[in-house]
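Section 4.2 – Deliverable D4.2 (structural model, holo form)

The reporting period included a commitment to supply a predicted holo structure for the target in complex with S-adenosylmethionine. Inputs used:
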Amino acid sequence: MSNLMEVINQLYSTHSATREELKELILCNDKKVLDYLKKLAVKVRESVYGKDIYLRGLIEFTNYCKNDCYYCGIRKSNKNAIRYRLTKEEILDCCKEGYELGFRTFVLQGGEDSYYSCEKICDIVRSIKSSYPDCAVTLSIGEKERSEYQAYFDAGADRYLLRHETADETHYKKLHPPKMSLAHRKQCLYHLKEIGYQVGCGFMVGSPYQTVDHLVSDLLFIKELEPEMVGIGPFISHKDTPFANCENGTEELTVKLLSIIRLLLPNCLLPATTALGTIDPFGREHGIEAGGNVLMPNLSPTAVRKKYMLYDNKICTGDESAQCRQCTELRMEKIGYQVVTDRGDFKRS
Ligand code: SAM
Ligand code: FES
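Output (structure tokens):
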């Protein structure tokens, strides 16, 4: 145990650890060690971002997807999913509402939907940026050609979220159909970085067939890529997918990994995700108290929220955006943090 305390001290001072050390830390269940890990993660978080919580308004603008990821509720083969697309006007209405509620980042997320051509996405990004020049636009629309990423960037997109899902090739193949590859996903992440986006990678915690060694590979990959954002959340099964009967990831492990990621990348933007709030009513609070500094309340029109079901029992699908916004602020106040009206960019040190 004392050895693990040293590992945590070393993570704190050098932001690095070996494969064996990370593995031991992930496997550790000693409360004293875990409390210390959390304490240092919060210390680092506060030294960079204080007690501020950055908000991202999530606009889930399409649930059409050409992919068939085995875990995902909006996969192409799910015939029970009721499909929808938002028009540019509907997306702009979400931004208007969001802006009034104090959001200064809009995240456009969707399945891989070829209906939204490169020109359409650029047009949407340009419209948002011209109406709200003080806001950041984040895209999360999957794997694209480098030229498309460049076009979105030139249109004004600031950030891009593309979780790598798992950094282990064999594990990746167990989660995705043969035509998807980890190598391509990683290539996309490097293209995004080269272009100049603030980039986010990430993975699901407790996804089917995941081992501790896979998690260590995820952490080492994150360290190597040095993204500005890291999105992790527990895997939660969806009843209409091949993984319907698989066990969900746990809150404990997700929270522990959030702290480790905070120590590995002190400046990263680290959300306490909706999935974390779904497996535990206080999951988001616990994520923030473990070193997270971002929340992503839903800004999608209430009419479509239930249709963007990536996993069962997703929270906030019946709420209005204003309710989510207020709820978020109160929840953060209760644990001593403050939601801020700010673009919430990555801080370089
Ligand atoms: N199509 C884009 C992409 O592939 O990056 C963005 C949308 S995708 C649905 C967003 C993320 O949802 C994925 O990266 C995945 O990690 C997460 N996700 C999908 N199914 C999930 C599940 N059953 N439990 C938890 N997270 C899930
Ligand atoms: Fe569409 Fe995975 S199946 S994002």
